[in-house]
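Researcher: Please generate the 3D structure of the following complex. Treat every line as part of one assembly.
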Amino acid sequence: MIELIIQYPVLAALLAMVGLSLVFGAVLGFAAVKFKVEGDPIVEQIDSLLPQTQCGQCGHPGCKPYAEGIANGEAINKCPPGGQTTINAIADLLDVEAPTLDEEHGEEKDLPTVAYIREDECIGCTKCIQACPMDAILGAAKQMHTVIIDECTGCDLCVEPCPVDCIDMLPLESTLGEWKWSLPPRSETLALNIIASDRKAHSEASA
Amino acid sequence: MTDVAVILVSAILVNNFVLVQFLGLCPFMGVSNKLETAIGMSGATTFVLTLASICSYLVHSWILEPLGLEYLRTIAFILVIAVVVQFAKMFIEKTSPLLYRVLGVFLPLITTNCAVLGVALQNTTKAHNFFESALYGFGAALGFSLVLILFSAMRERLAVADVPAPFKGAAIGMITAGLMSLAFMGFSGLV
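Model: Done. Output below.
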């Protein structure tokens, strides 16, 4: 058999490579079944869309549990930090209608905010430190506290427990490093249509 | 026994794949930013390199040689390496999700790690037998790991060092690698 094949080098090469490929394909196919990773990839996908503020405004202790909740059929409009963008992205992923944000869990803010402690009013009660899910507040008992701006996700959870109401949510100042040219306004809100289109005239005509 | 020592010392120090033969430079520069990932990458590469040199030896001596197809060894070895890496990826993903998370995108990079193909090809040109092939692959991986871990430890220090602005980042990494390569030239003639 081998002598016969060796007489035809091209055939031998073809047979060898095809045979190798087939065997390796079979090995990989077997491994794909044998080493299949259990886990719910949809949870990971939803989790990656959530803003990871870990604020708990949805009623879950963090973003990952909420992602699991969504995978089990919970409403997708409970995330104020993510706002309508996140809801639309999740609705897109799950292929459902995008609902509007459920105001019960909080309102969407236009600008990203950070907590700011008015330090001369702070009495050092540490209540905001305990409330902070990101460990972004620095301080000790009877010492003035302050917020680490880079860590703060603007979830407002520290505002409520403060007994002297010395925490403000301030809009995050944009620095040169993160400044972006704002997107142009949508064409329907523009008074002037820059690109000539007969769509409007057409819809009026059909109406 | 001396044979074993000679092959190991030669593969690890004298003919170090990264610093003397300049193979496998992409992971050497790419994965050496953190000691932790470097150690993970070293483990994965050791696993893949040893297994790939064994498999490619088997393919070479059982299939290519009897059929007189030695000229196909490069493409056949690439096939073998790709399969071994893919298999290792599935295996690690199943057995150690933590390591899989650390390696992440770098695992497929082993496929294009020229050190792996280099070992397989050198095994055939040096006419190593089965045991020598496996040992040479393992030694090459140990040398790669040694250099990668040393280099990443240095880069962790470099990250906080006061480097002049024009040399920051990759530039100082390249210079460090060059100096390490010079240092490894001191091993030449040892075996």
